[in-house]
Fold this sequence. Notes:
2 domains; globular
Amino acid sequence: MRSFMSWRRWIAAAGFLAASAATVAAELPRAKPEEVGLSSERLARVGQWLQAEVDAGRIPGAVVVVGRNGKVAWQQSVGKLDPARPDPMAADSIFRIYSMTKPLVSVATMMLAEEGKLILEAPVARYIPSFANVKVGVEKVDPATGAKTLELVAPRRPMTVQDLLRHTSGLTYGFFGDSLVKKAYLDAGIGVAGDFTNAEFADKLATLPLHYQPGSTWDYSYSTDVLGRVLEVVTGQPLLAVLRTKLLDPLGMRDTSFYVPEPARQARLAEPLADDRVIGAGATIGNPRIPMKFESGGGGLVSTARDYSRFLQMLLNGGALDGRRYISPATLRFMTSDQLGTAIAPGPLYLPGAGYGFGLGFAVRRTDGEAAATSAAGEYNWGGAGGTAFWVDPRNGMYVVFMMQSPKQRVAYRSVLRNMVYAAVER
């Protein structure tokens, strides 16, 4: 019988054989933009803008998909797959999607909750015992010298699975900001590449202080990585196997995985410019060609615009695609409702932004106004540190997938793209 570790390595090296053996899902239907209330002329501006950015040397290339009313209405690839090679960007180019991994893990979590296999209000320590003794780090400043020290105090309540889903766990990321807790993360090597399992990563994280009291503050964090380990515990399978069973294989997301060991698929892997590989302090864009034991539920997947479009269309359909239901509409409404309210404070790096709350795995637009973005209340979204992004707008029956590899441009381009796409909405 295979050991757990040999099973994990086998999945990483040969998992796509299972996908090829599975029933191949039908391609999403297509329509001309005008058939679904969009302007071809105005969507063409998006391609022209991106091509100008490529020509100016700011990005190597990009892929955009706009879906509306159940159909792919517009798709375009521009530029190069890799600035060091002549190959053009293509519809099936493979991108490191980083934090766009989080919505997939979050949906898989809620599918397991629907099956009664985990409980949202349960303490994380119920599934990962090392979190039973976690402490909260409180910075103290000496008024005479200004020196900072870290006092460890007991949490007022346990961290829950719901906290992991909505980033209110008290965990953080070490490569954004300069607090003493974040420094402790960096000093411990958290976030540095290493050949560790998800279990080892979670247990090491549990030895470090929390940045906030659980349930008190939204702080972007390794919460979804810990959540990935929870899924392994409740299913007895590696995280990739869980995602394949629940979402990737039945949705036909054949190019979505944690690693790309096959040479033929490596040839489709998009690369950033040589001077655009930094995603945070001490963190650079990774190399998914080499399979490792770690399967990051918070940021480890690679995917294509085609694959992610299938996932988003399923969500836009209320949790079903091609006659198969993945999650109930009621559960999806719960996931895409603001979970923060006024009781949970936004941390210093509140990535959802003004006008947005956060649900279970997604930023959620609260009102039509306030946010500096043209979309409707109820829209939900997220993006990845490597430059990818998406949004789903139920009120307008629309989703958009944006794939590029450019950490430098990841924030600014999302705003430009959103305004240009909504400029094409005619009805």
